[in-house]
Specification:
By secondary structure, the protein is an alpha/beta fold. The chain folds into 2 domains: 2-30 and 290-350, no CATH class; 44-280, Rossmann fold (3-Layer(aba) Sandwich). It is 43% helix and 11% strand. Helix 3 (82-94) runs parallel beside helix 11 (270-280). The two termini are 24 Å apart.
Length: 351
């Protein structure tokens, strides 16, 4: 997603340069080069929160990814999102859980990665021999024993919309882990796994539950013909299944906890979804310093919740917040005709 928005941002900034020196001066003052991207050589040792990790004695968590590589037309890529797997993977491990990875067809599932969206944890996962072994040899869902897991986490990615809902092994896994007192988590498109789950007494799992998931607004902003390309939109289908859908601002961290059901709206909800799952399992997560992207999302959340003055106060306390992410949100607002929001958000990027 960030790749697409970045192209728009660069086009916008290029347009400013055409206007003249003032445009160049504006871009220069942002000092975007002062926030270099994460190193592709990052390892687990570079992740601050793993240094005080708990011994992995609390049990096991199963992360489930899609096996669907393309949309039905075979042209548009689907797959799972690396960022939504990697960040949760290390949160779970740091908090004392061993993590296994499964997929409907087993083997090496189709990964989607966006280098513009990568943080140290994502590169660490790619450089982690044990993590890559688990991913490349993902377990087949019908071979998984639900009794082995304290929680199940459904990773997002557009492929989930096609192979998660009607998979009987997904339904069995969710039902048995949940009924045994375990925690169910999902982020972005991952809640598609919950759509057809019914408990042993026939009650739909989602009925009356507060949930999040990728919103219609987010989906349609990125894919204008999403209603044609997908068999459904996730927000609509969650509501059709009786859930109380909770919608946060576009591309801002929104995580909803309803007992032992934890769901996040979009990729920026991954950290909070994973840590909320740890809390639902009865533990306070280990201390973790938020990254630049998370600091930017906190500023955005303050802006949408309390307005520009509150956002500026938060911004003052987060000088290292991701300027590119704030600018991307300014661009999104501008493309939607929300010029006042666009102006405020670009001012927050400047600090």
């Amino acid at each position: 997603m960030k790749r697409w928005i970045k192209r728009g941002l660069l086009a916008c900034l290029a347009g400013m340069l055409v206007v003249g020196v003032s445009g160049f001066a504006y871009v220069y003052t942002l000092d975007l080069d002062g926030q270099p991207p994460a190193s592709a050589d990052s390892t687990v040792a570079d992740l601050d929160f793993t240094r005080d990790a708990m011994p992995r004695t609390r049990g096991r968590i199963l992360a489930v990814v899609t096996s669907t590589a393309h949309f039905p037309d075979g042209e548009k890529k689907a797959g799972f999102e690396l960022t939504e797997l990697a960040r949760a993977y290390y949160v779970f491990q740091a908090n004392g859980y061993e993590v296994d990875i499964a997929s409907p067809r087993s083997g090496s599932p189709p990964m989607r990665r966006d280098d513009e969206d990568m943080v140290a944890a994502d590169y660490a996962f790619l450089n982690d021999t044990d993590a890559r072994r688990k991913l490349d040899g993902s377990l087949r869902l019908d071979d998984v024993d639900p009794a082995d897991y304290a929680a199940v986490y459904f990773v997002g990615g557009k492929g989930t919309m096609f192979d998660f809902p009607d998979d009987p092994h997904v339904q069995r896994l969710v039902r048995q882990v949940y009924q045994a007192g375990g925690v169910i988590g999902a982020v972005c498109h991952g809640p598609a796994a919950l759509l057809e789950v019914a408990l042993d007494d026939g009650t739909p799992l989602l009925r009356g539950r507060r949930v999040a998931g990728f919103s219609n607004a987010e989906e349609l902003f990125l894919i204008k013909d999403a209603r044609v390309r997908f068999p459904y939109l996730l927000q609509d289908r969650l509501r059709e299944k009786g859930a109380h859908y909770v919608e946060g601002p576009m591309y801002v961290d929104t995580t909803v906890v309803d007992g032992r059901l934890v769901t996040g709206q979009n990729p920026w909800s991954t950290w909070s979804t994973a840590e909320a799952m740890v809390r639902a399992l009865g533990h306070e997560p280990v201390t973790r310093a938020p990254g630049r992207d998370e600091l930017a999302v906190q500023i955005l959340a303050a802006y949408h919740r309390d307005g520009i003055d509150a956002a500026r106060a938060v911004r003052a306390g987060h000088p290292g917040a991701d300027k590119r992410l704030l600018l991307m949100h300014a661009l999104v607002a501008g493309m939607q005709g929300q010029l006042r929001d666009a102006w405020h958000l670009q001012s927050l990027a400047r600090g």
